[in-house]
Fold:
Amino acid sequence: MPAPRGHQPAEPAPAHVTLVPLAVIVACAVGGAALLWSVRDQLPAPIAIHWDAAGHADGFSTLTEVIMGGLLFTAVMPLALLGLGLAMRQTRVLGPVSGGLAAFISVLMFGGAFAQRGIADPSSAGIDRTLWLAYAAGILVGVSLWLVTRRRTRPAADPGLSLPPGAPVLGTSATAKVAWTGTLRRPVNTLVPLGLGGVLVLGSVALGVVTGALALWLPTAGIFAAVFGFLYATMAARVTVDARGVRARGLGVVPLATIPLSAIENATIKRVDPLGDFGGWGLRGGFDGSWGIVTAAGDALRLERAGDSPYYLTVTDAVAAAAAVNTLVGRHSGVTEDKSTQ
Amino acid sequence: MLWQVDPASPQPLYEQLASSVRRAVADETVTIGERLPSARDVAASLDVNPHTVLRAYQLLRDEGLIELRRGRGAIVTASHPGRGRVAALVSELVAEASRVGLGRDDLARLIRKGA
Structure:
């Protein structure tokens, strides 16, 4: 079946998708500066602001410079990212990323100085614990913002299956049980992210051992392990369509997507371009406000979700998967299967 | 790949499951080296007994279409599009014959006569 080609006009995101990350960025910058100013009497002079690979302080500044620099770094880069998100209509992705980045920089810069309270010699100040905290704050704020801004406020359609023209349906009997199983399409061998991630993780640990600053490099190794592990799990994902809904499981176990049948209005096939439509590969938000797990260019299963954005999965046989979804949704909503198209 | 079983069909469920795999192998929806979902997962998706799925997998193993490896599940080992197609047709033939009251021995006789 020929799949429709072409981009849908990007749907502008609601104002809160931009305003909430903006408020978080401002809060991180101003809050961090205010917190540091409140303990100015307990801080050493000068304050350590830079550490070498081994975790020894090797750069120092005055309190004013720390606060001005902190305000600048915490606000400028995240605001630039948010602005880029607005320009690209990608605030659903770049909003949480910019907020998470602001939290990370704020904790790292203001928190790094805040941790030096009561220290007489700033050269003895450490950064290990602050770095861990900064990573944790960045991830926590980023994920929280994503949860707050992810939902689309499109009204739900009337109950029942609403099939667009050409949407595939199975021609099975009403008593037949139907399921579809498959994988996401893989543009490269799954061993590539595994190998690349392994090299970066081992490299970070080796650098930590060589410089004697393992505690400093372990968070970096952990981030590499998490990112490349997730990438590998995504590429090796299994997708199941059955009477419970549509599920994608990385390596068969890591939950990547769970969409109950009751949340699906219909399924169609749409050609996607990971870079052009989603800005990259993996679990991503699309430029048109959709979401999806996009691993390769070509035909993708497009799930129209009730009251939410469409969800894309670049599965191995999108036509059969869509037919299975539509058949099951039709049964779930009580629609008979008289309108079979295949 | 598409899994379909009809409890109302006279064809046993495990044979219907095996037919789903044969069809997928024949139309190359699944390829050599690909791992099929675990019997437990297929059973949960179709609301059938896991032993029914295992019986289908054992049938396909005996046909040389898949290998059952401990800890690795069912792996497709043979493409045999022709063989898979024939097996799928035989499966449909047996079901159709059953519907009109013909047993497997009757079918075998008919096939021999036809040959």
